[in-house]
């Protein structure tokens, strides 16, 4: 059973109402994505608000909006934002990202998302959890196409995906006129196959930065790279 409150070094996340709970994918993306210089950030599928909160911790001036199609998740994110040290820079609301446009029409410097990406036909009895987890609720092609319309000219979109989505995301990005500028391959254990991909996409071309990240050594201990990445957030690793 998941803890109802997940405590980090500088904030806590109530982890009760949102269908998708705090997990490694979200923490990885929140710690990895490039936030330097971003003035406005949009967290798509914010869930508990974890990635938005991590972004607020890492960037002292950005205004950050979290959007989620699930009403309970949006409400939980809003409560987590209100109880954080950065409540004046965070807001959350319910809505479908594919229908979203900012009220002021201003583009975002960073769009970040831990999107639904499971593709199995077998679904769980929990419809809200399926909506949060299953790729059919926010397919990569329309997601990236819409994100491209909301990004500043020098903006970036960061997301996490399963390794099996490599070709799909590359094609979806190309169709949306987004360039892959950073790609990290993540394996759970050193020497084991890649399971996740961390992406940064941009309307502007830039040399592709490639990297590999293993989360644990073969003895189960965290690797130095992983421990260093998440050290500002986890109470212990």
What does this structure look like?
There is one protein chain. β3 (40-44), α2 (50-58) and β4 (63-68) form a beta-alpha-beta unit. Strands 5-4-3-6-7-9-8-10 form an eight-stranded mixed sheet, with helices on both faces. A two-stranded antiparallel sheet has the order 1-2. It is globular, with a radius of gyration of 17 Å. The chain has a single domain (5-230), classed as Vaccinia Virus protein VP39 (Rossmann fold), CATH 3.40.50.150. Helices cover 27% and strands 28% of the residues. It has seven helices and ten strands. The longest helix is centred in the first third of the chain and has 12 residues, at 71-82. α1 (24-32) runs parallel beside α2 (50-58) and α5 (140-150) crosses α6. The two termini are 20 Å apart. With 237 residues, it is of the alpha/beta class.
Radius of gyration: 17 Å
What percentage of the residues does DSSP assign to strands (E)? 25-35%
CATH superfamily: Vaccinia Virus protein VP39
The end-to-end distance, rounded to whole angstroms, is 20 Å
The tally of beta strands, per DSSP, is 10
Ranges where pLDDT stays below 50 over 5 or more residues in a row are 127-136
- The number of helical segments is 7
Q: What is the CATH topology classification name?
A: Rossmann fold
- Please give the share of residues in helix: 25-40%
Order of helices and strands: EEHEHEHEEHHEHEEEH
- Strand order, sheet with most strands: 5-4-3-6-7-9-8-10
Helix/strand-derived category reads: alpha/beta
The largest sheet, given as strand count, sense and whether it forms a barrel, is: 8 strands, mixed
């Amino acid at each position: 059973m998941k803890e109802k409150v997940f405590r980090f070094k500088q904030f806590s996340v109530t982890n009760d109402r949102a269908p998708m709970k705090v997990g490694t994918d979200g923490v990885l993306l929140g710690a990895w994505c490039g936030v330097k210089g971003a003035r406005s950030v949009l967290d798509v599928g914010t869930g508990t608000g974890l990635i938005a909160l991590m972004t607020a911790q890492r960037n002292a001036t950005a205004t950050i909006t979290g959007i989620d199609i699930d009403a309970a998740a949006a409400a939980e994110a809003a409560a987590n934002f209100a109880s954080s040290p950065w409540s004046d820079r965070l807001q959350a609301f319910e809505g479908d990202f594919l229908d979203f446009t900012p009220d002021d029409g201003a583009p975002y410097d960073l769009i970040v998302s831990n999107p639904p990406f499971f593709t199995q036909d077998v679904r769980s009895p929990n419809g809200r959890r399926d909506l949060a987890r299953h790729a059919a609720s926010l397919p990569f092609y329309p997601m990236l196409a819409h994100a491209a319309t909301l990004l500043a000219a020098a903006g970036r979109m960061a997301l996490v995906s399963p390794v099996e989505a490599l070709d799909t995301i590359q094609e979806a990005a190309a169709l949306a006129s987004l360039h892959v500028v950073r790609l990290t391959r993540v394996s759970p254990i050193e020497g084991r196959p890649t399971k996740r991909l961390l992406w940064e996409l941009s309307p502007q071309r830039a040399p592709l930065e490639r990297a590999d990240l293993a989360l644990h050594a073969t003895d189960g201990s965290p690797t130095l790279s992983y421990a260093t990445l998440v050290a500002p957030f986890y109470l212990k690793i």
